[in-house]
């Protein structure tokens, strides 16, 4: 049993707080029928639920990567325990060899040899220039075995496993859904006598019902997405122990591992930034629209000025200042991870400071419209205080706008991180993110033969994440669209 | 029924809307015919399918709309069978349509000339100078002065009545043989409505054009129509000629509509229709009116009545063989609010004794003196005030406890602003508002809150005045939690239940959301919300103008009953004289921010002394045939309150204006006891 010390990074705290907030929000929604109805509509949206399934997988990876610890170093018994300087996460522990089994430099996906020739001393042959064998990738293979046959067989085994797991899931969901339907039916006054089914049809009938989309929740879309995800993820998982499935980068790190690690950064940028944006945008937007007068003028001037400064310049200046602060106060940080973490949070903060204006303007306009409505005037006539009117009447009627814009902003922020890291003002260089992966890979596009896998892996992962977020945002917008309310 | 020589004949038209997987039939088997030069009115309440019928004839149904069956023949041509390209030659050409809202039926970024020219070019190939001359001619025909200049103007430069005239000019450009007018005057003031109706009948006489008039207003029908079709829940229930329709309506629904009309003749309650029209998704198998019908028979619930000719030219969809002799009684028993028991009334003030209430001796509950509300017009970077909109410009009035004062005027005269300024929702610029002797202007914070408990408001639009995201119980308790700290939270549920019963809603309504209720029910909720703080004065801002006739009667009954029980005084802001006649004790007529005539309701309505009041009264279309008398038509429309005319505000439109009227504003003078008129030359009795 390895000893360890739990490390709580600030970003971890925020991530788990966000989870708690999400659960709290869900509880609130459950008590509010119009909101619940809107989410039910989203739940019935096939594309939206497929996207949500993909997003959930990303979020799960992000959460696994947000539980940090430091392993104890092996030491003399009785001596004071020393802990490693590297901060690891649960994801690192699960990924195990992916993190440690580094090659010397570039190797292509599923390669057994490096991507560059080296001068080797071969006993009996003298110095030879050839592609050396990788230290880890495919080392279990004998000389006469081909990668395709071995990897194909492994992939097939895991694909079959994936199919079996999925089938079990589908049957489980179908039966649970069927039981729920029956209990609901039996509560109706005109309950039909329960049908007696043969064991086979009692499974097939609910499955068929599920497949034809006769459930309130879009289970067929979720299950199909799960099948696709399992068919991709399980073979990847199985193969990644033996091969570098996405290849290795310049210093020999596994690109698959880097891709997994980047997910957390993308999620934090996308979610934590909204924590900064939201209070600013909501408070200032409602205040400007509701109180009008000089409050409105002041807030409008503020966001007009902020908007007229080129955003990238402002972010670059702020990030450089933070970097100087970090560099001059090394004593604040026990580990490099904490340092990188602070810079990540600073980046979120700066993106939030520059990003609240559009939502603020939207909410101001809507509040201007709402405050003239008669139910607000009726509340004023009852002597309700401004704060009470804002809380009880204005905020609930703005909720749909806030939710829609939050989900839509997420994908924009993930892309913004990539761009900022690419131009060198994003996350700490020691931290793996989609932006740094792209940045590192860009020079290699010019070499011959081209190193394409780093870029492709980052692109594919980010594309999937952003596409899923956008599709989900569409579903949310449709669900909350006032025309359908 | 459709005659072979008819211009338009609609046979068994069935239209529906797709909603998800369901098909909701909105128009179910409608048949009628219109002859050349005839005005046929389709009358019905909102949602009965009258507009959908018009859209179906022109094949302008929204994307979800479907034609399920039937035939539409126009001048021998089956319209429903035509391909879309051929249909375009008919629309705007021999068949034209004008819409309810003139403000949105014109394109705001095109000049008037371009919009008329479009039709001329499309249907007559006219361009250039020829088109221009034709446009000027058309504008002159619809009564627009200086047409050459108007052709180059944009819709925002025109008033509402002018826009509707332009819209009519556009339809005339296609030389239509049939004009479909979908509520053409509903969005207009009565004096402008009278102008537009005159224009339409004049044009009809000159051109021999047929008109399909879609309306919910029996007065407009009486003024315009030669034959009338009544629609209910997607079916035509009665078609009759003008004489037969007004003299002896046969269908119980038509009879109920007449009975629900408020006027001065009823002493007690208005007849109302219980319940509401069935929804499209749940049409009863039998007669669709059965659930609300006073003369319902078992047969009605089983079998849908046939469309039969009850008398020559009088078609009917009803099982009743003989017309109901009397329909004055028997309506509305189910809809009347339960008589509240004394326990229910516990949180509400004890009714005042009937003696002494509203007698001239008692001190007024509300006294308003020289109230002014001016809105600055700001321009430029520094937002300097360059002028004033004098929305309310020196209004004085008084309301006695338990009495109703009706504030009457056309849109833009400042009557709603008066209501809001009384409640201090808009800070008055000058003047004094005294409620039970206490000055309200300038109050703030706790004192204002205490004063607001005495005075509440019911708004015009029941769909905008209730927060869609709160339960009805929360809506009603809002005022209590802010103003009535004395009611403990435990007691609130009981108070809410009592209030709901009092306004005639089930107690379970407290747990539901506003969108689950119809317009009339929502207005009941709004009234309950206002009553929750036990006000002595209720300001009702056109509370029935967004409602259908039968629902309007229910709300008016409720208001009258509440006044009898609780002794609440009303300030009733309205433009509807029928409502004034029914409800008001006193009337004040407003024009451009000032009261021009004020007095007891009987005096003002029977013997108006101000020319404006007289014109206003005569412009109201009466839902009767015997409305003879001379009609007074006002030229033009209400000027902008930012630039009121000098002297008497009314002189540019006044038939009696003299030199003195152009120079000085007349002081209000008493022409009789408690009857004051602001006119230099008041009319004689």
Work out the count of structural domains of chain A: 3
| Percentage of residues in DSSP E strands of chain A | under 5%
Helicity range of chain B: 25-40%
Which sequence of SSEs, written as H and E, runs from N to C of chain A?
EHHHEEHHEEHHHHHHHHHHHH
Percentage of residues assigned to helices of chain A? 55-70%
Name given to the CATH homologous superfamily of the largest domain in chain A: MetI-like
Classify the fold: give the CATH topology of the largest domain in chain A.
Answer: MetI-like fold
What is the makeup of the main sheet of chain A? 3 strands, antiparallel
Topology:
The complex is a heterodimer of chains A (485) and B (685).
Chain A (H helix, E strand, L loop, with lengths): L3 E4 L2 H21 L2 H11 L2 H19 L3 E4 L16 E2 H6 L1 H4 L17 E5 L3 E5 L16 H41 L11 H13 L7 H22 L14 H37 L1 H16 L2 H18 L7 H20 L1 H15 L2 H8 L4 H37 L11 H9 L10 H28 L5
Antiparallel strand pairs in A: 1-2, 2-3, 4-5
Helix pairs in contact in A: 2-17, 3-8, 3-9, 3-17, 6-7, 6-8, 9-10, 9-12, 9-13, 9-15, 9-17, 11-12, 13-15, 14-15, 15-16, 15-17, 16-17
Chain B lengths: L7 E12 L2 E13 L4 E5 L6 H9 L6 E10 L2 E2 L5 H7 L4 E4 L3 H4 L6 H13 L3 H14 L5 H5 L8 H14 L4 E5 L7 H18 L2 E6 L2 H7 L2 E6 L2 E7 H6 L4 H9 L37 H5 L5 E4 L2 E3 L49 E14 L4 E16 L4 E5 L6 H8 L7 E6 L2 E2 L5 H8 L2 E4 L13 H12 L5 H14 L16 H13 L5 E5 L7 H18 L2 E6 L2 H7 L2 E6 L2 E7 H6 L4 H9 L39 H5 L5 E4 L2 E3 L8
Parallel strand pairs in B: 3-8, 3-9, 6-7, 7-8, 15-20, 15-21, 18-19, 19-20
Antiparallel strand pairs in B: 1-2, 1-4, 4-5, 9-10, 10-12, 11-12, 13-14, 13-16, 16-17, 21-22, 22-24, 23-24
Helix pairs in contact in B: 4-5, 4-7, 5-7, 7-8, 15-16, 15-17, 16-17, 17-18
